[in-house]
Amino acid sequence: MKKFSVAILGCGTVGSGVAKILLDMQPMLSARAAHSITVKTIVDLFPAKSARAYNIPLSLFSGGGKDLTKEEASAYITEVINDSEIDLVVETIGGTSEYLYSVMLAAVNAKKHLVTANKAMLAEKGAGLFAAAREHNVTLGYEASVCGAVPIIKAIRECFTGDEVQEISGIMNGTSNYILSRMEHDGLDFQTALALAQKAGYAEADPTLDISGGDAAHKLVILMKLAFGADVRYADLQKTGIQTIAKEDIDFANEMNCSIKLICHAKKSRGKVFAAVMPMMVHHDNFLSKVHGATNCVEVRNAYSGKHYFVGAGAGSLETASSIVGDIVFAARYGTAVENIPASTPHTLADAEHSEFAYNITFSTEDRPGITGLITSAIGDQHINIDTVSHNRHNTKNAVFSVVTMPCTLHQINGAIAAINAKAPGLLAEEPKIIPILH
Amino acid sequence: MKKFSVAILGCGTVGSGVAKILLDMQPMLSARAAHSITVKTIVDLFPAKSARAYNIPLSLFSGGGKDLTKEEASAYITEVINDSEIDLVVETIGGTSEYLYSVMLAAVNAKKHLVTANKAMLAEKGAGLFAAAREHNVTLGYEASVCGAVPIIKAIRECFTGDEVQEISGIMNGTSNYILSRMEHDGLDFQTALALAQKAGYAEADPTLDISGGDAAHKLVILMKLAFGADVRYADLQKTGIQTIAKEDIDFANEMNCSIKLICHAKKSRGKVFAAVMPMMVHHDNFLSKVHGATNCVEVRNAYSGKHYFVGAGAGSLETASSIVGDIVFAARYGTAVENIPASTPHTLADAEHSEFAYNITFSTEDRPGITGLITSAIGDQHINIDTVSHNRHNTKNAVFSVVTMPCTLHQINGAIAAINAKAPGLLAEEPKIIPILH
Asked: Which residue of A has its CA nearest to B336?
């Protein structure tokens, strides 16, 4: 059996999981890959610490197991790049530094397959890496970069090749979903739920990237390239976080048979792709509404085969590592630049303001007769059909009520709000809360 | 671009869908496959009728579009087998006839890739076809044979290669799930729900194969080979249907926070695999309990990555066809005998009577004091721990009550029932209903 040598750069939470699975399952993985898969070396600054969780032999580490300076680690990484025996490099260092980018690019330029869980790098600087992989006919495996263990990358790339993806909606950030689930089921406010998420280890000390939609947006950029051939810059993607979601919004959503979820949403619309990360009111008929806690779920709507749901662990050491090892087996078995296969014709980003959704608009106003008529008239004037108008009983300070619209654009809604403000300045006590609805 | 020619044998519900997608998506499919995919011919007895639904050009049919006798069709099929230009044969004729088996085997022996949705053939006579595919290094694609559009085959074969499947539980028969859902949500009895399923086109005039678990068992045999390397004969698989499920069983399950589902269940246990198709009480915390109507759902529990769920359309013309076309693209792109890659070390079938589950046992007895004690004592004598004993209020003729056990074997339960019958002959008004519980 031909040998297939792997180097692991970075042996933290995920990297150590990769080493463990590669060592534990060596014979089975080799049978599946039709190659004898071997860990040739692991480069990490603190081998003794990194090896501990899974008892990884220190002899596998570059330098024999002693702690390394940054310069030493860097030199060992250069050795890996120059080692013609190494077939595949696993990058589990993380971050988007220029240095790391140069390492990843050098590995591909040296005709090594590259497998990574680094969503930020792929979303922000992926184009150069994919182009190099195509040029050198090596695989760039990134199953682990989107939703951890959920095999959504291969589902789109290898399974849905007889179909056309039309829409993707996903719960792709476990931290936000944990917070929203606690708010919904335990009646907590946002700050309390966030503190619990931090205590439970689901949220970082600085939770900004998770709760602002930034982390989820990295994943959506990657999926948009794969599913729609759309080159979207991370900076250009509309990101709305969950910080402004109040307990009363969640209670009201429940009354409307919906749950509020932070959704990565992308859909084809008139030759372009609308894409955004945003809180949505997900109807209880949709499986996404039933996904609680830190679990991830991706809904894919296809032209021929309709709706699919993929549910699984979005993070975790061995969970994420299993996706990386799957990519290693795939690269060893097929050995071609499979990640570059187009899943769709290229699309460009649609204008968010002109994309259509059913919306829930919550107005907080003075409490006096005539306001419902004034507001619904302004909405009707924008040719928006109204589905439901309901008084929201969860806030007593102002008159709070919600209008559920039929599909319309943000442009129309903004027009209605401008007209209300022009006609009755000061009537709106707060900026209306506008949440799109997902059925 | 190299040509890749496809012949479609049988142009019914699924075959015509395959032709439509291949024709509609030709450029995109070819880009994905890195081969120019072409439909060279379609063999069908009644082209005019078969072509109608999707406007398939009659010129694509062997014989130019005229109706064929069986002898003529057979001769055209032989032409396909002998045509060295044809790279792949799609079998969408169906059935398990010796003739069809010989055609499928001949296609593989002629070094053509074979793609089929024929679960019965694969489950009952698949071994010879897989062996021939391995020998001739061609692909045998069968994604469509299990759960229609749900990509469960490639999920296990291509995505979970960095992991070890430990347990599979699936709702794999849409007809049964439709019937159970109607019984649960609309309070119908079995016969009424079955009649509605027939009216809605979900159930055949003779629904035996669906409601008895036979259809689901075909799919489970295929998954057991793939996921566990287990060669299980269809005839040896334990199959319990849903015919005996009464409305009161469903109501009682609901009270216990469960729904009754027909589950294809397979799990590793002490080096063997337990496998059965059977109604199970699925706890409402499990996603399988939330899958209603004709939708399919497969839960996979892996050693490293934990629980996964795959939800999608289990049947339908274009839905199933999209899976077949995905297999065509896969075969054209990779072109090797990928289906033979072992997903696991080979396992053999465990003895069903000695496999452990938590069970719900419903007893229907004379209505007099002392019976609860007598029955629970008999259960305890078998070293079965009892979780809950609850009176079932939905039947007034006898005393009806349910015992939920901690994990135990059917062997232990049968021992308890025998002891009850020995001690108090005639006490049990009916044979106790024993339903395993899935959490």
From this structure: A334
Active site residue A219: yes
Structural domains present in chain A: 3-149+319-340 (3.40.50.720), 162-313 (3.30.360.10), 352-438 (3.30.70.260)
Give B417 to chain A, closest Cα distance, Å.
Answer: 39
B339 reaches A (C-beta below 8 A): no
**A228 contact B CB<8A:** no
Distance, CA of B246 to CA of B435 (rounded, Å): 12
d(CA A275, CA A404) in angstroms, rounded, equals: 22
How many CA atoms, within 13 angstroms, populate the side-chain half-sphere of residue A365?
A: 23
Q: Mutation test of the interface with chain A: which of B153, B284, B322, choosing the one with the most A Cβ atoms within 10 A?
A: B322
pLDDT of residue B231: 86
Q: Taking Cα atoms as reference points, which of A436, A416, A437 lies closest to residue A428?
A: A416
Is there a contact between B32 and A312 if contact means CB atoms under 8 Å apart? Answer: no
Q: Is the pLDDT confidence value at B179 over 60? A: yes
Interface mutation target, options A152, A158, A330, chain B, most CBs of B under 10 Å = A158
Q: Provide the 8-state DSSP code for B428.
A: B
Nearest CA in chain B to A300: B312
Q: Which amino acid is at A197?
A: A
pLDDT of the residue at B344: 66
* C-alpha–C-alpha distance, residues B252 and B260, integer Å: 10
Q: Is B329 on the interface with A (CB under 8 A)?
A: yes
**Which among B219, B239, B261, B268 is annotated as catalytic?**
B219
Q: Do A161 and B304 touch (CB under 8 A)?
A: no
Burial profile B21-51: b = 16 or more Cβ within 10 angstroms, e = fewer: bbbbbeebbbbbbebbbbbbbbbbbebeebb
Closest chain A residue to the Cα of B343, Cα to Cα: A32
User: Rounded distance, CA B129 to CA B119, Å?
Assistant: 13
Q: What is the pLDDT of residues A297-320, one digit of tens each?
A: 999 999 999 999 999 999 999 999
- Segment A334-339 shows an average pLDDT of 67
Tokens 């608009």 belong to which residue?
Answer: A361
Q: Which residues of A touch B322 (CB under 8 A)?
A: 160, 162-163, 302, 304-305
pLDDT in tens, B301-354: 999 999 999 999 999 999 999 999 999 999 998 886 555 556 667 778 888 888
Q: Is the pLDDT of residue A367 over 90?
A: no
What integer is the mean pLDDT of A182-190? 96
pTM value?
0.96
* Residue B273 dihedral angles phi and psi, to the nearest 5°: -120, 125
The candidate with the shortest Cα–Cα distance to B392, out of B357, B367, B417, B419, is B367
**pLDDT tens by residue, A14-56:** 999 999 999 999 999 999 999 999 999 999 999 999 999 999 9
Q: Is A67 on the interface with B (CB under 8 A)?
A: no
Beta strands A348-349 and B408-409, pairing class? unpaired
Q: Are B412 and B383 contacting, i.e. CB atoms less than 8 angstroms apart?
A: yes
Q: pLDDT for B350-397, tens place per residue?
A: 888 888 999 999 999 988 889 999 999 999 999 999 999 987 665 567
Query: Between A370 and A343, whose confidence is greater?
Result: A370
A326 vs B: CB within 8 A: yes
Q: What is the pLDDT of residues B66-96, one digit of tens each?
A: 999 999 999 999 999 999 999 999 999 999 9
Q: Alpha-carbon distance A402 to A434, whole Å?
A: 10
ipTM (interface predicted TM): 0.96
- The distance of Cα A199 from the centroid of its chain, to the nearest Å, equals 23
In angstroms, the separation between the Cα of residue A310 and the nearest Cα of chain B is 5
Closest Cα of chain A to B127: distance in Å? Answer: 19
Shortest Cα distance, chain B CAs vs residue A41, angstroms: 19
Angle (nearest 5°) at CA B247 between B194 and B235: 60
CB atoms B151 and A150 under 8 Å:
no
